[in-house]
Design brief:
Blueprint lengths: L1 H20 L1 H13 L2 H23 L1
Amino acid sequence: MSDLITAIGLLFFIEGLLLAMFPSRIKNMLKIIETMPENKLRYSGIFFLLIGFIIIWYMRS
């Protein structure tokens, strides 16, 4: 359970760091994402989900 809480904390840390360092670029990226088709967003999400799973699986084994 502590690994899950650590992972969530790390996620918040990285997102907060990116927002603090590049606020205008984040706003531009959100505008681009808004115009993207849902299928492309879905496939991108699945791709990053698989990459994350592979990294976690590799580090845990």
